[in-house]
Amino acid sequence: MAGSPYLIEYRGAFSFPCPPDEVWSAMQRFERYERWWGWLREFRVDGPGLETGTVLHGVVVPPLPYRLGVRIVLGECVRPQRIDADIHGDLEGAARLVLEPERDGTRASVSSTIEVMQRPIRLAARVAPRGLRWAHDRIVEATVASFRRHLRE
Length: 153
Hints:
By secondary structure, the chain is α+β, with helices and mostly antiparallel strands.
């Protein structure tokens, strides 16, 4: 389905000013997610944390007039190095986060391939395919910026 207006393939890398173990610990502060990220609503976790089998549920509210219900099933989790996940709901796909030590902290590499399943958004993406990518990229930027600000809380 390459080239589909419904498919978003993403690769990005970001630096954080602390070691991977601290980044991992901060990522486990699930109770803070909705406060950190204004685009996230109705967040809940089924499972013990960043471990294989844990399921994250939430609603993504991007800077466009729609909402996306998602369920993220954590696959292999190797503390503090890697998380593989499958994404279900209004988005379907897979994602991977890799944390590597960097001279001044951590390099976080993110990759994902997701397909939008919600019919109204698919219709909008057919007419304005750049809008979907724009909304995705704004959420990524907001997520990283907020995580940096709150990393050491």
